[in-house]
Backbone:
């Protein structure tokens, strides 16, 4: 017995129970499980494997900032001139007040800017790096309250910036962006469904299960973080479009088939059962192919992909269940009224443009295939102009406190201090006994020609060379390690206050044991978030390694935004090469299982691969060749491959399963005509909706999300209107009965051809 026929009868019989379970279960899930935003991480480097060079460099720099601890920067700035003595005293009071906040473990004054108008204080927090959720929000709010409650002179502005404050502020923006994305996606889907169905209730019935699935999926994914699933803000955005887009697609498959069965004269409840029987397998295999492709991301080294894969797979799984249970229950409850005012009548036929298209494809399959393959091949060649570009951490609103703090850093401190690329050396013995190493390393870095500025212990405040190596050694002998000094010099100290403060600031460049030294640098290639800086990192690492040999260091590394982005690009490219064949093999096996064929899966998977390369080539053409960008988002090729391969197979499954169904009673050319005519509107409508939901990202997200949205939308449209309705049908006709080898259908057609 067909399991989907059993499912269809069960859902129709217990339709009220199923509806109540969903209506009660969804809000309970959202209430009792955590939200996605409370568990999200927001910096791409937070997802790098531990053996990535930038992560190793960060581990070397642990004496200055432990990898397990989050940070924040307190920025004090006066816009009308240099900081006054009253300002300095007030900043000390603010630092003391902040130090009393329970989450703050250490407060370190990192000195005054060269223009004397700003001062920065590093805060070490008892929170993991890139923390989010209520704990991080409460911590940041507590620090900002301590800052606001401490009186300061008029004209002195205080800001809290750095990783965690920026993430907390960005989370608020993400929540708004996610809301906008969801609203735009729902509006677009409803508008298009109104055009497709020309009915008032059908769009709402189609969308409702997907929307309810979205309510359930978010908390389930958040709960799954306890078993290792990682969540990023990008997952939050993609979850909306994937669940709503894929869910609407599956709903269309079912509702279009129900309308067809009603026109064939069936009773509404029988029409629902038959629709689930006929289309349930297609929907299920469509969902399983997407889930399988997403789960394969567990093989990735980049944590962002690992988190996106299982997280989105959970979302697809939930929406698949909703469309196999809740949607049929709603259709059984509402019956023909779903299609009001154009209620389908028995015997009614509807002419489709896809019938004419199918006739032309069947009549000229060779010409169709040659023209289509040539066009796609030409677009695929543009991929040769692909070059990666990073996108860094998501930006926050310019009016947020963290953004204003970063702006003050950029305005008053050199790039090497406001957003540095850190060079770290580990020495065999304490530098305090061999301080000449400090000047030698700084000189070698500057003469390499790769750095625009280098700040280190000899110039801790960025105001010109503060110390010679000999002076630094004598200060160490007189005062001890700078980490142990109080903020204010003791009254018994004979060291001038400016010299005392400058020496204290060397703690950010030399570890307490003197065996680790750090330099804040700026890259000549460009800002750390640019493609030029990303691509310069291999040369920078080679130069730093050479300096390490010259100064006798036992280890070295380069950390910061540009090195992290370079590692992300490298890991992402490696993951694509590793996972690409796995996904193709998995999808081919699933198609073989469903179609009972070993031939059809080969060209079906290859057709989607060609569609992927053409879509990526078009993205390169738009953003790089025409748009003039230095490169495109380095995760775009990976995302496009996974989503276009997985979602493209949805339409393959629908079309091919219908061709196979019709081939049992019709000749193959007639079966292709009938199947394309029957599914053409479904496929194109589903493709438009899915592409539209991806395109919504261009309106709701930043540049990085816009590129992903455009790339995925273009890929879905190419796959929908050309591959699924032209290239695949023409290939089926040319291959003939061998499409079904070695299944029973192949044997039946072989016998018939001999008679």
Residues:
């Amino acid at each position: 017995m067909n399991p989907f026929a059993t499912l269809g009868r069960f859902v129709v019989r217990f339709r009220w129970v199923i509806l109540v379970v969903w209506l009660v279960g969804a809000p309970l899930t959202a209430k009792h499980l955590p939200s996605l935003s409370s568990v999200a991480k927001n910096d791409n480097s937070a997802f790098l494997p531990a053996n990535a060079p930038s992560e190793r460099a960060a581990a070397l720099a642990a004496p200055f900032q432990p990898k397990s601890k989050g940070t924040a920067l307190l920025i004090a700035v006066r816009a009308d001139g240099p900081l006054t003595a009253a300002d300095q005293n007030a900043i000390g009071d603010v630092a003391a007040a902040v130090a009393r906040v329970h989450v703050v473990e250490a407060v370190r004054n990192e000195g005054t800017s060269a223009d004397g108008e700003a001062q920065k204080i590093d805060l070490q927090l008892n929170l993991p790096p890139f923390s989010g959720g209520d704990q991080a929000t409460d911590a940041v709010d507590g620090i900002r309250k301590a800052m606001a409650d401490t009186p300061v002179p008029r004209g002195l502005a205080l800001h809290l910036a750095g990783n965690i404050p920026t993430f907390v502020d960005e989370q608020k923006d993400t929540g708004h962006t996610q809301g906008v994305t969801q609203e735009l996606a729902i509006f677009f889907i409803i508008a298009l469904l109104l055009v497709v169905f020309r009915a008032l209730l059908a769009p709402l019935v189609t969308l409702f299960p997907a929307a309810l699935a979205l309510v359930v999926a978010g908390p389930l994914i958040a709960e799954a973080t306890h078993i290792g699933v990682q969540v990023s803000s990008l997952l939050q955005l993609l979850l909306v479009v994937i669940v709503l887009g894929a869910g609407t697609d599956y709903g269309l498959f079912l509702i279009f088939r129900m309308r067809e069965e009603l026109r064939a004269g069936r009773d509404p409840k029988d029409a629902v059962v038959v629709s689930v029987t006929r289309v349930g397998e297609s929907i299920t295999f469509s969902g399983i192919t997407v889930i399988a492709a997403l789960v394969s991301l567990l093989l990735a080294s980049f944590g962002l992909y690992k988190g996106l894969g299982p997280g989105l797979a959970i979302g697809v799984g939930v929406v698949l269940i909703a469309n196999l249970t809740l949607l049929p229950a709603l259709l059984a409850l509402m019956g023909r009224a779903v299609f009001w005012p154009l209620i389908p009548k028995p015997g009614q036929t509807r002419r489709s443009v896809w019938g004419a298209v199918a006739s032309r494809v069947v009549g000229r399959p060779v010409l169709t295939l040659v023209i289509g393959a040539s066009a796609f091949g030409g677009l695929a060649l543009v991929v040769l102009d692909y070059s990666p570009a990073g996108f860094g951490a998501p930006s926050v609103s310019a009016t947020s406190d963290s953004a204003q703090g970063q702006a003050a850093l950029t305005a008053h401190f050199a790039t090497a201090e406001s957003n540095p690329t850190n060079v770290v050396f580990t020495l065999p013995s304490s530098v305090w006994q061999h301080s000449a190493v400090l000047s030698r390393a700084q000189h070698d870095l500057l003469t390499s020609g790769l750095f625009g500025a280098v700040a280190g212990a000899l110039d801790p405040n960025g105001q010109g060379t503060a110390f010679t190596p000999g002076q630094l050694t004598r200060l160490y002998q007189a005062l001890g390690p700078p980490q142990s000094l109080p903020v204010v010099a003791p009254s018994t100290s004979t060291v001038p206050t400016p010299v005392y403060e400058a020496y204290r600031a060397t703690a950010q460049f030399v570890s307490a044991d003197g065996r680790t030294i750090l330099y804040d640098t700026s890259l000549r290639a460009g800002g750390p978030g640019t493609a030029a800086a990303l691509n310069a990192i291999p040369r920078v690492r080679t130069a730093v390694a050479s300096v390490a040999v010259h100064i006798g260091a036992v280890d070295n590394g380069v950390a910061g935004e540009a090195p992290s982005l370079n590692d992300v690009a490298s890991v992402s490219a490696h993951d694509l090469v590793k996972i690409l064949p796995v996904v193709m093999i998995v999808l081919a096996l699933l198609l073989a299982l469903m179609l009972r064929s070993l031939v059809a899966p080969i060209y079906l998977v290859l057709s989607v691969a060609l569609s992927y390369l053409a879509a990526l080539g078009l993205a390169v053409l738009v953003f790089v060749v025409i748009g003039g960008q230095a490169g495109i988002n380095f995760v775009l090729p990976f995302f496009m491959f996974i989503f276009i391969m997985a979602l493209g197979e949805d339409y393959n499954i629908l079309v091919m399963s219908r061709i196979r169904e019709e081939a049992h009673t019709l000749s193959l050319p007639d079966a292709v005509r009938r199947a394309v005519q029957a599914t053409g509107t479904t496929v194109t409508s589903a493709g438009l909706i899915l592409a539209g939901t991806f395109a919504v990202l261009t309106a709701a997200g930043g540049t990085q999300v816009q590129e992903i949205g455009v790339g995925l939308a273009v890929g879905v449209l190419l796959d929908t209107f050309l591959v699924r309705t032209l290239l695949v049908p023409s290939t089926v006709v040319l291959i003939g009965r061998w499409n079904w080898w070695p299944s029973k259908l192949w044997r039946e057609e072989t016998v018939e051809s001999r008679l």
About this structure: Residues 163-197 form the longest helix (35 residues). Strands lie at 70-78, 104-112, 118-125, 156-161, 388-389, 421-426, 451-455, 516-523, 555-559, 632-633.
